[in-house]
Amino acid sequence: MEREESKIQDVLEKETTRRGFLKGAVAAAGGAAALAAMGGIKPAPVEAAKPEKKAIMKYLFVERQNCTGCRACEYACSLKHEGVVRPSTSRIFVRKFHGIIDVPVVCWNCDDAPCIAACPTTPNALGKDPETGAIKLNEKVCLGAKCNKCFEACPAQFLRRHPDTGQPLFCDLCDGDPECVKACDEQAGNPQGPCLMAGKLGFGVNMAYKAVTPEKAAEALHLNFYYPNKAGERR
Amino acid sequence: MAAPKGGYFGRILEIDLTKEGYKTRQVSDELYRKYIGGSGLGAYFLFDELSGKVDPLSKDNFIFFGVGPLNGTYCPSTRLNITFKSPHTGLFGHAEVGGGFGNEIKWAGWDGILVKGKSRLPVWIHIKDDEVRFVDARKTLWGKDTHATDEAIKAELKDPDVKTVCIGPAGENGITYSCITVDRFRAAGRSGAGCLLGSKNLKAIAVAGTKSVPVVDNEQFLKAARRAKKLAVDLEAWQGIKRWGTAGLLELKNWISGSLVTKNYQTTWYPDIEEIGGEQAARVFWKRHTACPHCPVHCMKLGVIREGKYAGLIAEGPEYETGTMMGSNCLVADFDGCIKAIELCDAMGLDTISMGNVLGYTMELIDREIITYKDLDGIELEWGEVDAMIELIRKVAHKDGEAGKLLGLGVKKMGEKIGKGADYYAIHCKGQELAAHDPRGDKARGYSYALGQRGGCHHEGTNPKKHAQWAMLNSLVMCSFVGGYPWGAYTPQVFTAMLNPLCGWNMTDDEYWVTGKRIITLERCFNMREGISRKDDVLPKRLLTEKLPEGPKKGAVVTPEEMKKMQDEYYAYFSWDENGLPTEKTLKELGLEFAIG
Predict the structure, then answer these.
(1) Are B371 and B365 spatial neighbours (Cβ–Cβ below 8 Å)?
(2) 3-class DSSP state of B74
(3) Which of B216, B178, B227, B184 is CA-nearest to residue B198?
(4) What does the pLDDT profile of chain B (597 residues) look like in tens digits?
(5) In Å, how far is B262's CA from the nearest CA of chain A?
(6) Interface test with B, best of A63, A95, A96, A98 (most B CBs within 10 A)
(7) Which pLDDT score is estimated for A35?
(8) Interchain CB distance below 8 Å, A69 and B313
(9) Interface contact A99-B73, CB threshold 8 A
(10) Which residues of A touch B237 (CB under 8 A)?
């Protein structure tokens, strides 16, 4: 782990070409700290030159250790998509485990999208947005409460049902400018940084993390935070 | 009788435990505008429906889980208010608590839950939007501590997102200062709400909701709420709270303010404070910062003890109040032991402030040889003896032996029972144990302790106007960290700017203050029925006579003149008579005609 961290430091400090940077980052991906490092590298120099055109973010990243469980992301998401604060319809959610762990659950935007493959409708109710790559739902085609295929297919157990329609809630990345990331950024600060970050590239991290269910993430965090409480017991 | 346009659903869930039934109570916009919600509306229900002198533990008493208009909206840092007639003091009682339960009530489509009657057998209640279900708690929950109860409910419902309130063994066993616990680590501590729930045989309530709060003018409301949130995010003073929580105040109050309660209010100077303070906690204990819904301050700190006797203990704290009452008040310099005592109180569902005060009081009585180890079942309690404290906390929670029964009374009744001048050392106001700010070092706290309607509570405002402000905060059910300071104790514009577009009102600053006064006056009317007047609005004798022997405020004492001035100022602000009773004219002006006589 230490070695990996030093590598990330190198990646951050060295003035690398974009290609070199990518290589280093992919090698480091997998360590939780890698996510923070990637979030830290915000606008690449090319984009900085023409600020008038906002970059389209295609992936969400989560630094789970930083989550305070404040649910600002749920507030912002439901406000954007439903026009009201209604966390039960939010496309991102924070699940609390044992009252001591908060796990933000996001759509990892899998490259192979098992949910799309599982969708039984013709034409397919699910499809990738050509611009952002986000998975979008065609509400007219979706079978709603009658069908359970995409819920079963999602490896991250991200999908929830809309309480009114019974259809799955898919993250559309707010067309490339995720509201949850902005809300998290505003909310956090001293002493920990924000937990949510957006990126233009997945770096393979999304694929590495997609199979981590909220329960597994909570278990890992529990061990990470509350060592030496190995068994996960309270005392 | 118009239905509310926004901010409220206009209906309150009224649960009758005796019949295991429930009904919907319609509430009009006029009533909401008069009492806002939370403790204000609770005070109205209590005054209206309870006759005077009713036994707080009888089935007639009820408990109101109240929320305000801002709960469940974009407004940050909204909480839960619990209002009831206190079994600890016999007076008006309320407690505020963070966590997600308040908002979840709102999202389930209710403006509050009114729990009446008394169940024959232990039950818990599951509320899912409009569905209400009574579940047998005998085998699954009864007797469990608060952590295990929360866990068991979530496992039974197979719903990890459900929000719970529950009581621990202390509440079940009728300890009058037991608390109600929300989300495992947050406690509605003061006034003994847990005891009341225990007397009703109600172990827990779980709520899950899927609705949203109606808003009249969404655009204007969001603008105001965003501005308000920005104020809280940017406030320089809260950067410390974000980093250190309230535990950072432990050192501050010792070194600078001279109001850190030490040795059962004998002094305010505690040289060992670094052993149990925020610095130490950050170094050896804290792991995470956690926040209430949509709150940018994240003042709650979770940690794990890494080595020693209690290695692996996961707990919340120390906060300023818990760290002082279980720490310096008992002269504890053992950080791990202090955390264990706090965690045990959380698990058992005991109010850490009252429990710490009781322990400090008992230590002093032992010290002065008024009682002996024999009265404590042979437990050798001395200043700083953490192990003895922990054993006694367990005994109190289970009402075990003579010690459990004695310490479970609270300092006022203990003093009366023991006699031999023991009541001089009992530090309480109106029967409620004082909290962790010594009013000799921090004189403004005297207003809060002596004149607050729920008795010795640090959280009622530090001058008359702030009392009105805090009454509003408790009725809006806002956090005082966010609602009280950055949004201004003297400028209600932040609130009215949010309330008006939210509820479709045109509330002015004047109306805001009048509403605050109205709520306080109604609470006072309730207490008046129980026989409270000027003579009860005083600080305990020790704080009026003994000078602080050391520390930054050496020699300070609250003189009787100062006490009298506080009372006069307070009664004048609320236009009460000099005996501290609301006059007929005042009641008429505030629209409380029904309270006359």
Answers:
(1) yes
(2) coil
(3) B178
(4) 788 888 899 999 999 999 999 999 999 999 999 999 999 999 999 999 988 788 999 888 999 999 999 999 998 888 999 999 999 999 999 999 988 899 999 999 999 999 999 999 999 999 999 999 999 999 999 999 999 999 999 999 998 889 999 999 999 999 999 999 998 888 998 899 999 999 999 999 999 999 999 999 999 999 999 888 888 888 777 788 888 888 888 888 899 888 899 999 999 999 888 888 888 898 888 888 888 888 888 888 999 988 888 888 899 888 999 999 999 999 999 999 999 999 999 999 999 999 999 999 999 999 999 999 998 999 999 999 999 999 999 999 999 889 999 999 999 999 999 988 899 999 999 999 999 899 998 888 888 899 988 888 888 888 888 888 889 989 999 888 887 776 665 578 888 999 999 999 999 989 999 999 999 999 999 999 888 889 989 999 999 999 999 989 888 999 999 999 999 999 999 999 989 899 999 999 998 888 887
(5) 29
(6) A96
(7) 40
(8) no
(9) no
(10) none
- Looking at chain A, which residue has its C-alpha nearest residue B146? A99
Taking the CA atoms of B392, B394, B396 and B402 in sequence, report the sign of the dihedral they define.
negative
- Local structure of residue B257 (DSSP, 8 states): I
By a Cβ cutoff of 8 Å, what residues of chain A touch chain B? 68-72, 75, 78-79, 82-89, 93, 95-100, 102, 163, 186-187, 189-192, 225-230, 233-235
CA distance B45 to B64: 9
- Using the predicted structure, report yes or no on whether residue A48 has a pLDDT greater than 70: no
Residues written for chain B? 597
Residue B138 CB partners (closer than 8 Å, separation 6+) = B121, B122
How many angstroms separate the first and last alpha carbons of chain B? 26
For the whole model, what pTM was predicted? 0.89
Distance from CA of B183 to the nearest CA of A (A): 6
Q: Are B307 and A228 an interchain contact pair (Cβ–Cβ within 8 Å)?
A: yes
| Integer angstrom CA distances of residue B302 from A34, A64, A128, B271, B311 | 25, 15, 40, 26, 15
Residue A134 has which token pair?
């986000």
Would you state the structure tokens that stand for residue B369, as one six-digit string?
């040889």
pLDDT at site A42: 45
CA–CA distance, B128 with B208 (Å, rounded to integer):
5
Residue A15's pLDDT band (boundaries 50, 70, 90)? very low
Query: Cβ–Cβ of A190/B242 closer than 8 Å?
Result: yes
Q: Which residues of A touch B310 (CB under 8 A)?
A: 235
Contacts across the A-B interface (CB distance below 8 Å): 112
Q: How far is B139 from chain A (nearest CA, A)?
A: 21
DSSP 3-state of B386 = helix
* CA distances from residue B83 to A127, A168, B46, B61 in whole angstroms, order as listed: 51, 39, 8, 11
Distance from CA of A62 to the nearest CA of B (A): 16
Contact residues on chain A for B288, CB-CB shorter than 8 A: 68, 100, 225
Instruction: State the first-to-last Cα distance of chain A, in angstroms, to the nearest integer.
Output: 28
Picking from B71, B103, B162, B210 by the largest number of A CB atoms within 10 A of its own CB, the best residue to mutate is B210
Nearest to A65 by CA among A99, A24, A36: A36
Distance CA B9, CA A1 (A): 53
DSSP annotation of B434 reads P
E strands, B285-388, where?
Answer: 286-290, 300-304, 314-316
CB-CB neighbors (< 8 A) of A102 in chain B:
290
Q: What is the CA radius of gyration of chain B?
A: 22
Burial degree of B561 (CB within 10 A; 0-12, 13-18, 19+): exposed
How distant, in Å, are the alpha carbons of A188, A214, B290 from that of B293? Answer: 13, 20, 10
Q: Which pLDDT belongs to residue A220?
A: 87
Q: Give Dmax over CA atoms of chain A in angstroms.
A: 55
* Partner-chain contact B222 A229, CB within 8 Å: no
